[in-house]
Amino acid sequence: MLQAIIGFHLDDEQHYVAELACGHNQHVRHTPPWQNRAWVLTEDGRKKKLGVMLECKLCDNKLNN
């Protein structure tokens, strides 16, 4: 289920986590070549992603159970 990004925070390992409108969180790591998300490394890049929709696997799981 698609959910809007409403904020970001760092986890205990200093990886960025997107805070979703549904209340769930999702890691948004920049780990090339697997995940190319250089935008997450800057405050401006993260601000530009506020409101972007991400697929929330936890919401999907709740719907399917």
Plain-language structure description:
- It is built from 2 helices and 4 strands.
- It has helices at residues 43-48, 57-64, and strands spanning 2-10, 16-20, 25-27, 53-55.
- The radius of gyration is 12 Å and the shape is globular.
- It has 65 residues and is α+β, with helices and mostly antiparallel strands.
- It has a 4-stranded antiparallel sheet, with no helix packed on it.
- It has one domain.
Cα end-to-end separation: 14 Å
The secondary-structure class comes to alpha+beta
**Global shape:** globular
Task: Name the strands of the widest sheet in spatial order.
Answer: 3-2-1-4
Total discrete domains: 1
Number of helices: 2
**Rg, Cα atoms, Å:** 12 Å
Mean pLDDT: 93
How many strand elements? 4
Sheet with the most strands, sense and barrel status: 4 strands, antiparallel
Q: How helical, in percent, are the residues?
A: 10-25%
Strand content: 25-35%
SSE order, one letter for each helix or strand: EEEHEH
Spans of at least 5 consecutive residues with low confidence: none
Protein name: DUF3565 domain-containing protein
